[in-house]
């Protein structure tokens, strides 16, 4: 077994939190984006976060959130990290880190080689990077679409911050994704669901077991 750290995103029921804890997830994500089928209110997330064991880091995912939303989320939910999953600028990342005193993970969408310089840019201001597939033009959601990118684009590349691989990961392909990219952390949402927004405990366990199964080449 390796020491890959897994984030399960889009938790909305107590049994999802229990499944993550049972299977050994390192992070659990709550989505504060109304268009998402996984969206929760700050009060719902608070109740879920209070159920989480100490070892499960609680992450709030927001998309181009203003201070009013972030104030409400951070005042209500006990959190370990903020995930900015919209088109937040490097300046906004810096502002959010300073205002809330929480580590910030910035999601960057990748489709082609041209998207890679943004990773270096955000590595200068964020605590962690989340490397996700770039959504199709006009997509309703900027993430959580079950869409992968070409993992060869980041094979062998490194950044001066911890980073997570995301986008279209499933129990079936996560081992291959880790082998190709050398990721030490992976993030999944729709790949461990039985229907949009409905997490499946069996798929969560299968995903984490598959992610942790092989020795990881640190490229
Ligand atoms: O999960 C969502 O609903 C979501 C909504 C808005 C922005 C991001 C969202 N999810 C994040 O996207 C990645 C990839 O999702 P998937 O595994 O391809 O379905 C996921 O890990 C979340 O961090």
UniProtKB/TrEMBL annotation:
Every N-(5'phosphoribosyl) anthranilate isomerase (PRAI) domain range: 6-209
Key words, A-Z:
Amino-acid biosynthesis, Aromatic amino acid biosynthesis, Isomerase, Tryptophan biosynthesis
Q: Does the keyword Amino-acid biosynthesis apply?
A: yes
Catalyzed reaction equations: N-(5-phospho-beta-D-ribosyl)anthranilate = 1-(2-carboxyphenylamino)-1-deoxy-D-ribulose 5-phosphate
Give the E.C. number(s): 5.3.1.24
Q: Which domain of life is it from?
A: Bacteria
Q: Which gene encodes it?
A: trpF
Q: Per its UniProt record, what Pfam families does this chain match?
A: PRAI
Q: In which pathway does it act?
A: Amino-acid biosynthesis; L-tryptophan biosynthesis; L-tryptophan from chorismate: step 3/5
Q: Give an example GO biological process.
A: L-tryptophan biosynthetic process
Report the family membership.
Belongs to the TrpF family.
**What InterPro entries does the database record attribute to this sequence?**
Aldolase_TIM, PRAI_dom, RibuloseP-bd_barrel, TrpF_fam
CDD domains attached here? PRAI
Query: By what name is this protein known?
Result: N-(5'-phosphoribosyl)anthranilate isomerase
